[in-house]
Write a structure and sequence with these properties.
Helix content: 10-25%
Oligomer: single chain
Number of helices: 2
Strand order of the largest sheet: 1-5-6-7-4
Shape: globular
Order of helices and strands: EEEHEEEEH
Number of domains: 1
Strand content: over 45%
Structural class: alpha+beta
CATH architecture: Roll
Distance between the termini: 28 Å
CATH class: Alpha Beta
Number of strands: 7
Length: about 130
C-alpha cells in the first residue's frame, strides 16, 4: 500500500433515498424507507473510498466483513450522509483495513457498523477467486 493510510481518515458519501432503496420482497415494497441492505451497500462504498487512493497498481481489496445495526427509519426523499472512519490496519497474512461506518439523516444516527477489507496482490486474488469457483 502507498504511504499515508493513517487511523482517523474519513470519507463520506451523500445519497437521496429513492424508492429502489426501500425494503421490498418479491417485488412488493414493504416500507417506504431506507432499507438495511441499502445502508450495507453504502457502507461498503464509503469504506472503499477510505482505502482506494492508497492501493498500489498491483493491489486490490476484497470485502471480508460487514455489520449493520439499523437504528432508525428514514423516508424516501431524505438525504443520507454515510461516513467511514479508518480505525485499524493490521497485517496478518494480508493487510486488513477496518472502518467504523455510520449513516445519518441530518444529526440523527440511522445506522452504524463495521466494514473490513483485505488487501491482496491482484494476481493472487484472481487465482484465489478462480480456484473457488
Amino acid at each position: 500500500m502507498k504511504p499515508g493510510l493513517e487511523l482517523g481518515i474519513t470519507r463520506e458519501i451523500t445519497i437521496v433515498v429513492t424508492v429502489d432503496m426501500c425494503p421490498a420482497f418479491d417485488g412488493v415494497i414493504i416500507h417506504r424507507v431506507y432499507s438495511t441492505w441499502s445502508a450495507a451497500h453504502h457502507f461498503e462504498i464509503a469504506a472503499r473510498k477510505v482505502l482506494v487512493e492508497y492501493l498500489e497498481d498491483h493491489e486490490q481489496s476484497i470485502g471480508a466483513y460487514l455489520s449493520v445495526d439499523h437504528l432508525a427509519p428514514c423516508p424516501v426523499g431524505r438525504t443520507v450522509r454515510v461516513r467511514a472512519e479508518l480505525i485499524e490496519v493490521s497485517n496478518d497474512r494480508h493487510p486488513r483495513v477496518v472502518c467504523n461506518v455510520s449513516a445519518y439523516d441530518g444529526d440523527r444516527l440511522l445506522a452504524k457498523g463495521k466494514q473490513v477489507q483485505v488487501v491482496m496482490n491482484k494476481e493472487h486474488l484472481q487465482h484465489y477467486l478462480e480456484r473457488n469457483f
